[in-house]
Design a protein that fits this description.
- The chain is an alpha/beta fold and 203 residues long.
- The protein has a single domain, classed as UDP N-Acetylglucosamine Acyltransferase, domain 1 (3 Solenoid).
- The strands form four sheets. Strands 2-5-8-13-16-18-19 form a seven-stranded mixed beta sheet. A five-stranded parallel beta sheet has the order 1-4-7-12-15, covered by helices on one side. The chain has a five-stranded parallel beta sheet with strand order 3-6-9-14-17, with no helix packed on it.
- The two termini are 24 Å apart.
- The relative contact order is 0.15.
- Keywords: Acyltransferase, Repeat, Transferase.
- Pfam families: Hexapep.
- It is an enzyme of class 2 (transferase).
- It comes from Paraburkholderia bannensis.
């Protein structure tokens, strides 16, 4: 809340923009409080969540204390994190709806079909699109993109785009000069920072 207040948009009092901004802030207040309560509960369970990250309600299997999320990252609804081993998410990462991050599976070469677990790492500025699945031991590099519905079973190099099941890399690479803050696209936050984060609007 302190960050949003310090960086809030400040239109001229009484202007049309001022009324619009405060109407949006009022409408978004419940969602902002809801997000704060979710994060407070997750932190109480041992999860590490960095400054200004947006984490919606999602399914956790295993121990929340094995999950670490950096600053200014966005985790959408209906995400599943199976934290039977560590899940390390960097800063300014986007994890969209329906993503599954699975640190454990069964060994196909094991006659006893025993479970094994491996840490998953997702580096800064990575984007995990809707309904993608990240399998045990995967390291998603900085700025990498995992396409919607992709199933990733091996490491993804920085700034690489992967799609499909199993995921394969495209020839096209993502731009390296990344300088955006994904949480500011979230409606409860945009209601506060507004035009201060983009082109100044006329008041």
């Amino acid at each position: 809340m302190k960050y949003l207040w310090v960086h809030r948009e400040r239109p001229r009092i009484g202007s049309r923009r001022w009324w619009v901004v405060w109407a949006k802030r009022t409408l978004m207040l419940c969602r902002l409080v809801h997000l704060a309560l979710i994060q407070a509960r997750l932190r109480a369970k041992g999860m590490q969540i960095g400054e200004l990250s947006v984490v919606y309600r999602f399914r956790i299997e295993g121990s929340p204390a094995r999950i670490s999320i950096g600053s200014h990252s966005f985790v959408a609804q209906d995400v599943t994190m199976a934290a039977h081993d560590g899940i390390i998410v960097g800063s300014r990462v986007v994890i969209n709806d329906g993503v599954r991050i699975l640190t454990a599976s069964h060994g196909l070469g094991d006659s006893q079909w025993r479970t094994y677990s491996r840490e998953i790492r997702i580096d800064d500025y990575a984007w995990i699109a809707t309904n993608a699945t990240i399998l045990p031991g995967v390291h998603v590099g900085e700025g990498a993109v995992v396409g919607a519905g992709a199933v990733v079973r091996s490491d993804v190099a920085p700034y690489t785009i992967v799609v499909g099941n199993p995921a394969v890399a495209l020839a096209r690479k993502r731009v390296r000069e990344l300088a955006y803050d994904p949480v500011l696209f979230s409606a409860p936050f945009e209601a506060w920072v507004g035009a201060n984060n983009a082109t100044k609007l006329e008041h």
